[in-house]
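User: Fold this, then the next.

Assistant: Folding the first:
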Amino acid sequence: MAIRIELRRYLRQIAVPLIGASLMGYFGYHAIQGDRGLMAWLTLKQQLRQADAQLASLQGEQLTLANRVQRMSPATLDSDLLDEQTRLMLNYARDDEVVIMRPDSAPAATPAAPSTPPQN
């Protein structure tokens, strides 16, 4: 009987610290590895940085395209840009121009061999 009382007292003494340590381990693990833990926060922060960089890149591209569209509008027509686009689309080059073919460029962006436009 005395052993049983001693065992109960011993179990009561270690039960509270054991439960506390278990709760600390559970909440500590989920604070780091959980769905809303530290690792998830770091991953979201990295994704946010990548999305911001992509947004800045796309905004720069949008500004470039808006500038080109404005230069091609009838009110503010840029004759140099019009000439460049016409020769690019029709694959024309003047006789005094030098065409340098780059092997890494896309086929649509590479100008064709020099040729003269049809004479009227």
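Now the next one, as you asked:
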Amino acid sequence: MSDSIAMMHPMPVRAGIGLRAPHVARVLHEQPSIPWLETHSENLFALGGPLQDAMTRIRENYPLSLHGVGLSLGSADRVDAAHLRRLQELVDRYEPELVSEHLCWGAVGDRHSNDLLPLPFTEEALHCVVSHIDEVQNALKREILVENISTYLRFDGADYTEWEFVTEAVKRSGCGLLCDVNNIYVNSVNHGFDPHVYLRALPRLAIREIHLAGFTRKEGLSVPVLIDSHSRRVDDAVWDLYSEAVSLFGQVPTLIEWDAEIPELEVLMDEAAHAQEILDECEAPPA
């Protein structure tokens, strides 16, 4: 990462929520007490319109994180220059406290997947993703965060475990880490590893944000499978893992994600309040 890249204003070390379309009007007009908000970058790529206008006004009252889903950092293709340019314009406009993307791939040429696809944990894939993270950070002239994703299959021939791969990507690129605790738990069940080993291996000082969400269980299968559906309250097992994460990493800005079967805003705020209780109980200094 170049020396000209620096961290922006810090995000409040509190529990925020992901802002989705059903709640934009309430947040805009009622300004509920929420420490910070996160929205998907690609939803704001269109120039002008009511959503851009609303977000511009909301931004005046809330710290903001831009969370991307389409940059395809792990693709063997070059970084999409048009996508990166739109992201840069968005960052210049909103000046968010945090900018994040997923550690995955999702496009080949002009064909895009609706899912975040897993990477092979190989040296070749690591070199590719680090190069792309470096390109994005240099273009934006700021640190980005990368998020560990939930997965349902793995490639043979790995050189690294998942947690080793995530850690190496962060260390070699100099980016920050968005630690999705729910994704760690989902993958631990789907792939049969110890989530506590994963947590303890992560680079503590690079963790800038934590995500929490609810999952669903696939029924009628011969093996347990969890789906990262973002359609439920956070599971008790994930709350327990989150408590361990906070004890390991210190107080870290934490976000409640909910993207399907979206409930009333009060439900998200209630989940955020529970996360805040756990943050408040932490005696470790911020990471």
